[in-house]
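2024-03-11 09:14:02 INFO worker-7 job=invfold-0412 stage=load source=structure_tokens
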């Protein structure tokens, strides 16, 4: 598929405020919702401890399951996430799975017992608009819609569990549903992209936190896969003739976020020159020839977003920034990032001198003219390494696709309506 083909089918989510007029919308314009954001699911986070709700939701005929095999989503076509039904996954999800309260699960914890990871993602309340005739949606108190879960179908756990996961995957493969192992997940419709991002981030976190980060014992998945607890007792110890009491662990007695999923904030920035006529872009060593993007880096502890933007641009390119404005954000589930997108500008041409000697992270950084950037957005944007469109002229700049926040920041930075010099016109 050529880059112009993929750019045509790439779509962004709609802003949640799309129908609403407000003072803020008039002042700041339409919200940019980046790909992987704008989920259709109401997470109903306060119901994650309600085992009666979870038990009803998981077996409900309208429930759907996003399946991940070694973190790759199962799809039924190149761009189509498979929404499995309960009958597809029954071997891995017994109907009794949420029958016990969390209190009982913690009391009866036995570290010898493994289970496939099952995560409650939320309820799609918009499903009412597309529901098939005769299909009932889940109604729970005032909430109505299609419940969504993520399920791990990797071959893990006991030999029996591995065989069950294998047979679920094989049965689906016979129907043309297979794991999507490339990184090109940005091609799915935006609603599927957002559901997948949530599923992948939680699944990855669960798989990395099987053991308590404080005392080293096995943890138990609670809150429907969104928290891991270090239970006070373990029946595996009792089976060895020992006391089931595990001894103290600070995660049980103090307020601690050790067992909650993490999100790592990262800055990403499109930088304008002092005269607003050029854009600073950089390339890493792993980029194919002609590819450049906006600069990015992790926010460090005790650092504001704006300070992190200034530090990264100075460390990687030697350029000193003036004003920094936050533009939009993008969840990035590889594995747990939140990209905080900014637009920044240099105030003095003397601060534009590029110096790659501080931190040798970038292979190159360069100022590109607005015309070069406009041409690249039109004919050179695409997935990293993808062949260009027919209109692309060899040697010209290549940029990330519209589903990457880098592309949205570049578009905004060269948009006169967005960065227009209002004070100068007064
Ligand atoms: Zn512990």
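2024-03-11 09:14:09 INFO worker-7 stage=emit residues=426
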């Amino acid at each position: 598929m050529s880059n112009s083909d993929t750019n045509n089918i790439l779509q962004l989510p709609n802003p949640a405020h799309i129908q609403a007029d407000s003072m803020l919308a008039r002042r700041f314009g339409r919200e940019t919702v980046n790909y992987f954001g704008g989920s259709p699911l109401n997470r109903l986070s306060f119901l994650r401890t309600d085992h009666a709700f979870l038990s009803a939701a998981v077996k409900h005929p309208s429930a759907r399951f996003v399946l991940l095999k070694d973190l790759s989503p199962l799809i039924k076509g190149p761009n189509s996430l498979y929404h499995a039904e309960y009958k597809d996954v029954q071997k891995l999800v017994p109907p009794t799975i949420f029958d016990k309260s969390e209190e009982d699960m913690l009391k009866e914890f036995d570290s010898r017992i493994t289970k496939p990871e099952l995560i409650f993602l939320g309820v799609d309340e918009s499903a009412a608009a597309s529901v098939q005739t005769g299909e009932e949606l889940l109604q729970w108190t005032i909430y109505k819609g299609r419940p969504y879960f993520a399920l791990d179908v990797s071959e893990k756990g006991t030999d029996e569990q591995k065989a069950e996961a294998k047979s679920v995957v094989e049965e689906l493969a016979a129907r043309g549903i297979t794991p999507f192992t490339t990184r090109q997940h940005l091609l799915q419709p935006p609603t599927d992209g957002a559901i997948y991002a949530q599923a992948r981030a939680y699944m990855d976190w669960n798989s990395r936190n099987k053991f308590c980060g404080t005392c080293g014992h096995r943890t138990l998945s609670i809150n429907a896969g969104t928290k891991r607890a270090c239970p006070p007792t373990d029946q595996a110890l009792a089976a060895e003739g020992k006391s089931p009491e595990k001894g103290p662990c600070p995660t049980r007695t103090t307020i601690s976020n050790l067992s909650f999923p993490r999100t790592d904030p990262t800055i990403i920035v499109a930088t304008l020159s002092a005269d607003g006529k050029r854009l600073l872009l950089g390339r890493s060593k792993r980029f194919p020839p002609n590819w450049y993007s906006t600069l990015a880096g992790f926010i460090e502890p005790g650092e504001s977003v704006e300070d992190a933007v200034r530090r990264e641009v100075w460390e990687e390119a030697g350029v000193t920034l003036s004003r920094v404005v936050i533009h939009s954000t993008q969840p990035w589930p590889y594995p747990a990032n939140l990209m905080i997108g900014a637009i920044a500008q240099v105030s003095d041409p003397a601060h534009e001198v590029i110096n790659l000697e501080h931190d040798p992270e970038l292979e190159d950084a360069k100022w590109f003219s607005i015309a070069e950037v406009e041409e690249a957005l039109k004919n050179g944007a695409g997935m990293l390494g993808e062949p260009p469109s027919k209109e692309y002229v060899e040697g010209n700049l290549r940029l990330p696709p519209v589903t990457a926040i880098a592309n949205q920041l570049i578009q905004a930075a060269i948009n006169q309506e967005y960065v227009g010099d209002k004070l100068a016109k007064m």
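2024-03-11 09:14:09 INFO worker-7 stage=report msg="Residues 212, 214-215, 217, 230, 249, 251 surround zinc ion (CB under 6 Å)."
2024-03-11 09:14:10 INFO worker-7 job finished
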